[in-house]
Amino acid sequence: MSYISNTLSNLIHQTAFFNLTWGNYLMIIVACVFLYLAIAKGFEPLLLVPIAFGMLLVNIYPDIMALPENMSNGVGGLLHYFYILDEWSILPSLIFMGVGAMTDFGPLIANPLSFLLGAAAQLGIYMAYFLAIFLGFNGKAAAAISIIGGADGPTSIFLAGKLGQTTLMGPIAVAAYSYMSLVPIIQPPIMKLFTTKEERQIKMGQLRPVSKLEKILFPIIITIVVCMILPTTAPLVGMLMLGNLFRECGVVRQLTETASNALMYIVVILLGTSVGASTSAEAFLNWDTLKIVFLGLVAFAFGTMGGVLLGKVMCKMSGGKINPLIGSAGVSAVPMAARVSQKVGAEEDPTNFLLMHAMGPNVAGVIGTAVAAGTFMAIFGV
Question: Other C-beta atoms within 10 Å of 337: how many?
């Protein structure tokens, strides 16, 4: 009888109910909220569903992220090995290749001024960098945190790993991907605040046709120019341009399909679940995390503002031919930020089509964020 009672007692005490802290329960609630936003509200479900589920798993069963040396059999937790691919910058680089294979760079080629809007939207990165230092973070940590302002999760993970900020990688990645998912909520009020109704109603002329040769030469030239100036950007910019070259050269259809579909989705699963699994209550619930979430919001707001304000300047200089709303797409977050520019413009005039015009700054923002990351690596000698 005692054997049965001891066995039952052991089984009961092995359940998670007896081993979780209040912090674990709080993070489980947060994970469920993320799942609700992804499934019920459609907020970037491809990202939020795996992130939220990884968050759920690690706070129910922390050993799923256990280090090998902490386990009796010398084998680490499942998601620990996924997370190593983040730390080694493998998954972020593969994400960039997939983005390149999925994205048409034609609007950027047709309107090179989009590069300026993409650059202006990086204002949030540098504002967040100095504010992070003011809040007590060291230079490398501040740089890793500030990249959230580019609304680019893979770049945030890449830079945190390169700068040795693995302890902050979880909060940085979750903040970056959360703000990427919340682009349709965060950006419109800022866009409307800094533009007039008349500016939002501006209709832009049709972009010029871009030749096949231009589309093939563009990724090659950008790789040479950017990587010669900042060689540290090669893993991101190089993979982005390689994916786009797959798309545009027309001779590797199988590689294009793989990079933009099967491989891309496999990487998203691995990256999303491992990022979510880095948010155990012990690692996530602290003052540094709250600061990172705050700094990410500041960076994102200033990035949106910087793009829109330069858009206003360009609107004046062009005699009212450029709609300032497209500047907000310079924060990266391809293609969601461009869709938000289209949506806000269409609210003022349903016949106004800004999507393709906004894709130029959107693509430029991806390149700009990678350049900002490379700049920080160069500054810190990485």
Answer: 29
Q: Are 52 and 273 in contact (CB under 8 A)?
A: no
> Which helix H or strand E contains 255, and what residues bound it?
helix 253-257
- pLDDT per position as a tens digit, 227-249: 999 999 999 999 999 999 999 99
Q: Is the pTM of this model over 0.85?
A: yes
**Under a CB-based contact definition with an 8 Å cutoff, are residues 137 and 110 in contact?**
no
Rounded to whole angstroms, the Cα distance separating 120 from 103 reads 21
Question: 3-state class of 141 per DSSP?
Answer: helix
Position 16 pLDDT exceeds 80: no
Whole-angstrom CA distances from 335 to 138, 201, 210, 330 are 33, 21, 20, 10
Read off the DSSP letter of residue 237: I
* Distance (Å, whole) CA 32 – CA 36: 6
- Cβ–Cβ under 8 Å, residues 219 and 242: yes
* DSSP, res 262: I
CA 253 remoteness from chain centre: 27
Helices (H) and strands (E) in the chain, counts: 21, 0
340-375 confidence digits (pLDDT tens) = 999 999 999 899 999 999 999 999 999 999 999 999
Contact 135, 296 (CB under 8 A): no
- Which pLDDT belongs to residue 382? 74
pLDDT for 174 equals 85
Residue whose token pair is 């059999």: 73
Q: Which amino acid is at 370?
A: A
State how far the Cα of 99 lies from the Cα of 93, in Å rounded to an integer. 10
Gap between the Cα atoms of 22 and 341, Å rounded: 41
- The encoded tokens of residue 105 equal 């760079």
